[in-house]
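quick one, two chains, predict together pls
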Amino acid sequence: MSLFKVFDIAGSAMSAQTTRLNVTASNLANADSTSSSVGATYRAREPVFAAVFNSLRPDDPTARVKVRGIVESQAPLQKRYSPGDPNADKNGYVYLPNVNVVDEMANMISASRSYQNNAQVLNTCKQLLLHTLQMGK
Amino acid sequence: MPLSIDSALGLMPDALRLREQRSELLASNLANADTPNYKARDFDFRAALSSAMTGQGALSTDNPRQLQPADSQGIGTPVQYRIPGQPSLDGNTVDSQLEKAAFSRNAVRYQATLDFLSGRFKGLMTALKGQ
C-alpha cells in the first residue's frame, strides 16, 4: 500500500520542520547573549535540508526529507562598548550574536506553515486509508 | 456468462492504485517544499490510466497462468518534472499552493473511485444473493 508511505514522507518533513523551529527558537532566545570574545559568541544557526531517495529502487520517484546538518552564519559580529557589562573584555567591549531577528521570525512562520501543510497531508491520507478499510461494507 | 471479478470491477482497481501512487508523489513534493535543489515531479494521470488499461508495460504471455513480475505495478508513464511558475534561488521548484491543490483534488478523486468500487461490490453481492 503506497498510502502508508505517505506517513513516512510527511512524517520526515514534519520532523525536519520541527528541527528548523527548534533552531529558530534557539537563535531568538540567544539574540542578546553577549560575550567577551569573538570565539565564544553565539552565531545564528540554520538547518540544511536534503531530499532522500530510495537507493534500493532507483525508479521510485518519491523522496523523504532529512536534516543534513546545521550550519553557523559567518556574518560579522557586532561589537558594543558597554563597560558595566559583566561579560565585557578588558577594554570594556562586548560581542553580540549575528542573529537577525526579522530573518528568524520569517523563518519561524515559514516552518510552521510547512509543518501545517504536512500535517494536513497526513490527516487526509489517514482518512482515505480508513475509508479504504470500509470498502464493500 | 462466466463471472470474472476482475472484469466486473473494470478499471477501478487500476485507477485506485494510480491515485494512491500520485498522492504519494504529491506528498513527497510537499514534504520537500523547503529542500534546496529539489525538483517537483508529477505524472500524467490520463496517460498512466490508459497505459494500465491497455496493458502496456506488462510482459506478453501466451498462457493465462504465466505470472507477471511482482514489480510490474509501476506507473506506466514517465514521471515528469513540473515547469516552475516562479523559480527560486535555491533551485527548488515546488509551489506549495499548487501542490496542495493537486493533492486535495487527487484525494477527492481517490474517494470517488473508492465509492464507485464499493458500488460495484454491492452490485455483485446483490447479484449473488439474488434478492
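Chain B has a mean pLDDT of 86.
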